[in-house]
């Protein structure tokens, strides 16, 4: 395992994290709570993003940072590259019904550039067939949330302990295969069929700064990235401090 580049910490200085494919900022708020300042990058304008935002194609922006040397302003990188071709919904229900169209998988090219940064990084993906190492899997039940929202994370150039997955307390509310079930969790995706309303999604995931359904359905709960961010800050050693 390649060790992370030591980062010089200045007293009262918050290290800077680059949030690629940021959408409306589920991840960034968690990293900010953990102790990072955050700059988000997305190809779509995100007026609800509560931190510094750059509208750009994420991989082009990252390549430019590497070429210019400006990447060294950052301590770490989080990325949630599109991989609809491998997500569980696409390869399952949508494919069986002939729904959906062409999808892009940007996981592999994202990883190539992240390795070139020399920085510790995280690649996030939902459950499915996306080709990432599932070194860390998080679930809303680990944090007492009203969604399950299983997500997988591949840390690069650092490691993180994998917590135990607690038993779910019941069903996700809504219809599945024509059968309606009630339960302690809401379905924070799609619409209809008993799926969560916008206010229910906001409350269940701990996201208050956007009420845009599409942004909420793509977000990860900030509790996930706060957990990762705290471990990341511990993993990256300041210059001159012994391991």
UniProtKB/TrEMBL annotation:
Q: Name one GO molecular function term.
A: methyltransferase activity
| Biological process (GO), any one | methylation
Q: Which domain of life is it from?
A: Bacteria
Keywords (A to Z) from UniProt: Methyltransferase, Transferase
**Would you tell me the protein name for this molecule?**
DNA methylase
Species in which this protein is naturally found = Streptomyces rubiginosohelvolus
Which lineage do the record's taxonomy fields give for this organism? Answer: Bacteria, Bacillati, Actinomycetota, Actinomycetes, Kitasatosporales
């Amino acid at each position: 395992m390649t060790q992370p580049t030591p980062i010089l910490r200045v007293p009262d200085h918050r290290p800077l994290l680059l949030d690629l494919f940021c959408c409306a900022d589920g991840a960034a708020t968690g990293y900010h709570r953990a102790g990072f300042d955050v700059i988000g990058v997305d190809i779509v304008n995100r007026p609800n993003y509560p931190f510094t935002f750059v509208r750009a194609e994420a991989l082009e922006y990252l390549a430019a940072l590497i070429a210019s040397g400006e990447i060294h302003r950052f301590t770490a990188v989080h990325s949630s590259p599109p991989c609809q071709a491998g997500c569980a919904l696409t390869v399952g229900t949508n494919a069986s019904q002939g729904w959906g169209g062409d999808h892009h998988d940007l996981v592999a090219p994202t990883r190539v550039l992240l390795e070139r940064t020399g920085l510790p990084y995280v690649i996030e993906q939902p459950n499915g067939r996306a080709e990432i190492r599932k070194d860390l899997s998080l679930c809303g039940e680990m944090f007492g949330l009203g969604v399950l929202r299983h997500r997988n994370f591949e840390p690069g150039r650092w490691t993180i302990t994998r917590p135990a997955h607690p038993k779910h307390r019941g069903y996700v509310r809504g219809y599945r295969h024509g059968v309606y079930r009630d339960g302690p969790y809401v379905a924070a995706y799609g619409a209809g069929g008993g799926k969560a309303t916008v206010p229910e999604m906001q409350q269940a995931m701990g996201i208050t700064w956007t009420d845009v359904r599409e942004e909420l359905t793509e977000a990860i709960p900030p509790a996930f990235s706060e957990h990762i961010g705290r471990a990341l800050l511990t993993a990256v050693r300041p210059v001159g401090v012994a391991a």
